[in-house]
Amino acid sequence: MKAPIRVAVTGATGHIGYSLLFRIASGAMFGPEQPVILQLIEAPIEKAIKALKGTVMELDDCAFPLLKDIVKTSDAAVGFKNANWCLLVGAKPRGPDMERADLLKDNAKIFIAQGKLIDAVAADDVSVVVVGNPANTNCMIAASQAKRLPYDRFTAMVRLDQNRAQTQLAKKAGVDFTAIENIFTYGNHSPTIFPAFAHATIAGKPAEQVINNDAWLQGPFYEAVGKRGADIIAVRGTSSAASAANALVDHVRSLATPGSMHSIAVKSNGVYGFDKDVWAGVPVRTTSPGRYEVITGYSMDDFAKFKLAATNKELIEERAVVNML
Ligand code: NAX
């Protein structure tokens, strides 16, 4: 059997964490041959520490063959120690009457501290995935603290948006989800995210040709992807958690699988019109486990350019707020 890999997860007892841990331990994220050690990090709050203890009792009771050990801690230096993957799910939620700028600043402090610690104590081959919102900007902040690790080890999750876009296209076309290919999500994980339908295919044919309804693609489709999170809160009463955990499983599995083409947020070098150094969702191809190259060369029409500019503007504004720290 292979040696276990160490997977650190912050926000381990939050809504996403509770769906995520059991998927990792069962082998859904790293495959049925790969043993794992979970290193679970929670905020130093009595309620969270108690909940973590209960979650670990449940993990124990699953008797997962691949789960070789569990570390539970509120000390991130312990939790990130020698980790091969750091999944940064925990973040401060937006409170009532809280300004977005204050949320950005409060979270920036968390991700500055975590970026520094990961750089200091994680394994040499570590890959870091940021989920906690604002995910793109939190990722930029964490990566900015790294001196030992290259910036491309840090990615943020826009896969939930890609999966949502795939679902919308499949349902509109009346086909199986697997018939949809090459749908990628660009920009910020927020209502401004842009699902570039012009490059998508349905059963091998251009999606625009199959759907044959530009008004839907440029209106209800695009809007449904951007406000899906709010729509779920409106009916479920609480935010998407299981689908977010599933998207993180997909993000990591695709990033660990050479040849896979998928959407992740990475540091921009100006491609697709994103400002240099913001962290924007783009299509990538995995080159070796944990490494990727950005897929360039997709042409963008005026509608796409307009939407890319809007999501880019939001990323620049978020960066400006945290630069004021
Ligand atoms: P919860 O509020 O249920 O859980 C967050 C957990 O993080 C809590 O248990 C809290 O104690 C812990 N935490 C807070 N600060 C911490 C710290 N410094 N170290 C360790 N743990 C800490 O939120 P949940 O629904 O699980 O969502 C987690 C984050 O994911 C939120 O920021 C949410 O907005 C974000 N999302 C990001 C998505 C994406 O696609 N990038 C989609 C889903 C989700 O909205």
Q: Write down the secondary-structure element order.
A: EHEHEHEHEHEHEEEEEHHHHEEEH
Task: Report the span from N to C terminus.
Answer: 47 Å
Task: Tell me the β content.
Answer: 15-25%
The 3D shape can be described as: globular
Return the structural class. Answer: alpha/beta
What is the residue-averaged pLDDT? 96
Strand order of the largest sheet: 3-2-1-4-5-6
Your description of this structure?
The protein is α/β, with parallel strands linked by helices and 325 residues long. The protein contains 11 helices and 14 strands. The chain has helices at residues 15-26, 46-62, 76-79, 100-121, 135-144, 159-173, 207-211, 214-226, 228-236, 242-255, 302-323; strands at 5-10, 36-41, 67-73, 85-88, 127-130, 154-156, 180-181, 185-186, 194-195, 201-202, 205-206, 261-267, 279-288, 291-294. A 6-stranded parallel β-sheet has the order 3-2-1-4-5-6. The longest helix is centred in the middle third of the chain and has 22 residues, at 100-121. The chain is globular, with a radius of gyration of 19 Å. The chain starts with a strand and ends with a helix. Ligand NAX binds at residues 10-11, 13-17, 41-43, 48, 89-93, 110, 131-133, 135, 157, 160, 189, 229, 239-241, 244.
Features:
325 residues, alpha/beta, three-stranded antiparallel β-sheet, binds ligand NAX
Outline of this structure?
With about 325 residues, the chain is of the alpha/beta class. The protein has helices at about 15-25, 45-60, 75-80, 100-120, 135-145, 160-175, 205-210, 215-225, 230-235, 240-255, 300-325, and strands at about 5-10, 35-40, 65-75, 85-90, 125-130, 155, 180, 185, 195, 200, 205, 260-265, 280-290, 290-295. Helix 4 crosses helix 5 and helix 6 (about 160-175) packs antiparallel against helix 8 (about 215-225).
